[in-house]
Amino acid sequence: MTVLLSSLMFPLTITGASVALPGITGDLGAGLAASQWVVNSYNAAFAGFLVITGALADVHGRRRVFAGGVALFFVGGMTSAFAGDVLLLNTARGVSGAGAAAATTAGASILAATFEGAARGRAFGLLGTVLGVGTAFGPMVSGFLVDALSWRAVFAVPAAVAGLVLLLTPGLPVLPGKRGGGQGQGQAQKRRGHGIDWSGAVLFALPLVLLIFILGEGPVLGFTHPGIVLAVAAIATLGALFVRVERRVSEPMFDLGLVANPRFLSYAVAAGSLMGILVPLLVYLPSYLIDVVGLGAGRAGVWLLMLTMPVVLLPTLGAALAKRLPSVVLVAGSVAVSGVGALLLAVTLGPDSGPGELLASLVLIGTGAGLTMGVLDGLAISSVRAEQAGTAAGLFNTARLATETIALAAVGALLAACSGGELKGAEFTEGMRAAGLALSGFAAVAAAGVIALARKARHANG
């Protein structure tokens, strides 16, 4: 129960921050580029630390890393709630993202170690449900918090929940650490500790942060600015070093051989593209509904249920369809459905939009994500050898989060370019419509890629 309670906070604070953005920009006097980092810094830290914190949990103990992650999330959340300037807020959000990564990986490991057989399946089913509920109801809950208190409550309330989790953690025997046992076990863990791929972790995280910097600051500084040019060069250099290190290190953070598995790669592409469509709209659509359509924060959160409820309601249907349809049909079809929804949003969104005009587009976008929620994870793990399952899960989730983070930054850059750095009025409308078109094109390319990779996998298997 403690792990599930902690897991509720992490998606809630992603989607909830979107409702807080208008208040943050007004209260702290932040420009568009700075306010985008409220979400981007959290996501980038989450994606960058996800795999390495899983390794730390194996070496230093699941419960210890879980508690440390929750503590970081608590400190980051409370600092965010009381931040007096946007730089401190964005730094604190990065700390929260790192803490969420540690608690997520260690928490999943705790569940796997605590339960077996059918009980393990039920535990992870509940985990998926909690994550879906946090994503679905985050904007609505946060909207009511903003209306009743202020944007600061969006960060303070999840931090308070983290504080409760910290109080519950030490006394719960159902949260076993892996550390302990006989001398042989300790020696094995010591050997594994020497094998943690710190260089791979750094070489993965830095290019991701630099790419987000380029997308966020490029529209402000200009893409020919020396800082942007240097960042591009650094990404190319660090990327080449990352590949070289991961091929040579004895215990790499990522098994790059999995990228050569077309079936696994197709599922990773689909998962990343679906979140890359859903999450940017979860972040920027609330600001549009508040600042342009004229809704209150709470009402904007309620409207977003049209987008998020399919994510909660449809995974069971998706699992049933996965047993009856070829996987490529379900996976590519789901990406295409979300793409059609994004295209429809570009056509229907406007200052006078009501729930009726937005219903079809938002439901279609949410349906694509909902039908594959959990299903894609299972397909990806089953597409590799049993001994690769843990590595594949880490790479799959990191690919999904990294794609989501990059898409979020890209949509923010597009909005900045279309609106001149201010999310207001007709320029905001044009920017959101352009974002819908761009996301629909992204979905079309991703669906085509999934189909091509599925054909390649079929030919490879004879």
UniProtKB/TrEMBL annotation:
Query: Does this entry carry the keyword Transmembrane?
Result: yes
Q: Which PROSITE patterns match?
A: MFS
Lineage: superkingdom: Bacteria
What membrane topology does the UniProt entry give? Answer: Multi-pass membrane protein
Location(s) in or outside the cell: Cell membrane
Q: Which residues form the Major facilitator superfamily (MFS) profile domain?
A: 1-458
Q: Which UniProt keywords apply?
A: Antibiotic resistance, Membrane, Transmembrane, Transmembrane helix
Q: Which InterPro entries match?
A: MFS, MFS_dom, MFS_trans_sf
Q: In terms of one coarse class, where is the protein primarily found? A: membrane
Q: Kindly provide the name given to this protein in its UniProt entry.
A: MFS transporter
SUPFAM superfamilies xrefs: MFS general substrate transporter (SSF103473)
